[in-house]
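Entry 14. Two folds queued back to back today. First construct below, sequence then structure tokens.
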Amino acid sequence: MDRRNSAHALATTDPVFAGLLDRNGEPPQWRRTPSFGTLVRLILEQQVSLASAQAAYLRLVDRIGEPQPDAFLTLGDEELKSIGFSRQKTRYVRGISTRIIDGSLDLVRVGASREAGQAELLSVTGIGPWTTACYFLFVVGDGDIWPSGDRALYVSMARNLSLDEVPGAAVGDAIADSWSPYRSTAARMLWHDYLGGREYVEDQNAGFAGETGKVSG
């Protein structure tokens, strides 16, 4: 099913999403390319706000152009620190760079199979369940995946479902399971509302939706 049509399909099965669709319209698709740069951006978004991650990413682009593994490996520790990479994220992205160069991480192969591709990403140091889920949602276009641990989604969920408090991952993910096979669309609609709905204007240079990096990996 087309991703835009899935918003209407979800709205017909759940009044919460019917209300979101009526209030905000269809959510942005936030598609990204299957590239090293996309992985770098996702790593930068871990545990920080989108604004901070975007600023670091753009400084990196100013330094080396569209990020490529070999160019990234030419940057020293202090240079990366000045760009906005923590010591941990420097280690993560250097490891990813090396694996792409030696062929042990192949982004074409990752996108070819959901199960095998997720396993391949999860085998990489610095890429955990949230990063993997976002990669499959925004890059591969998986229609039924949920970025567990995303604080913005749980905040939006609490607001729209009139919950007494923001749910933790276990409770929030259990609720999201009821939205299968449209969990990716549910995430987009909740993120869109969190960002302001119809008032939100997508910045093509920004990262993914919401404060999505409030998790580990």
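Second construct, same run, same settings:
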Amino acid sequence: MSQIQITTLDGTIFNALLAMPEGGNGSGLILIRGLFSKDDALLDLAKHYASLGFITVCPDLFHRQREDLEQTQHHETDWELAARLYKSFDVEAGVRDLLGTLAHIRQMPECGGKVGTVGYCLGARLAYLMATRSDVDCAVSYYGVGIDKMLDEMYDIRSPYLIHLAENDKLMPPSTQQRITTVLAKNKHITVHVYPCAEHGFARKSSMAYNPELAAQANERTDSFLKEVLQV
């Protein structure tokens, strides 16, 4: 595990974690954290995806909110702070940073060319936007808050996209989920899985909503999806 720097077209420079697969070569994967993702949890995820053969890069998309973010490292249940971070996060700037990350990975001599992305919570929304606004080869979203406000972009998705939704997600009421599943079903490139009785964060081990059985099911689907699309 190492740290690298990424430069975007507008000159923005930010840090990113890099986990290389054992063989040293492979397809790329952009790992997009959520607001409550601790560094140790990120390391575990990055190592897992690297073990599957992916050059895994986790960009620090919250570098503009560094002071507040450090507080969330120690307050996993501070929803007031999370709401403030979410509201102040510059989504468009985040997408630009991700586009820079995508370009960086594809220019790495160890990368075979294909790059996917996996995002959690706010990161899931960004993974969705990478599916709609970039030529990323595939994308995965776990309980993506805010996707319902951007469903019109769904028609721009031309590569495989997998989304996991929690049936009892308090940040995404049933009516919103129904709208999301109905609209996304119109695009043949999109696969939606809804997990009964699951709550927001069900796949995050540090979450009070963590559900080992459902997390395993979702993660197995993600791993198989990435291996198939990225041909690892």
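Quick look at the second one. The chain has one domain: 2-230. Helices lie at 39-51, 66-72, 79-88, 91-107, 122-133, 174-184, 212-230.
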